[in-house]
Amino acid sequence: MFTGKENVILPVEYWQNEFKTGWKNGQYPDAHLLKFLEEHCPEIGPKVLDVGSGDGRHLVPMAQLGFNMTGLELIQTGIDTTRKKLTNFGLSATLVQGDFHELPFKEESFDTVISVQVLHYNNWLGCQKAFQEISRVLKPSGFFFFRARSEKGHWRPTDCQIEDYEGITRIEARGIDKFIVMVHDYTFKELKSLASLYGFTIESSIDEDCNGTPGQWNVVFRKL
Question: What is the pTM of this model?
Answer without folding.
Answer: 0.93
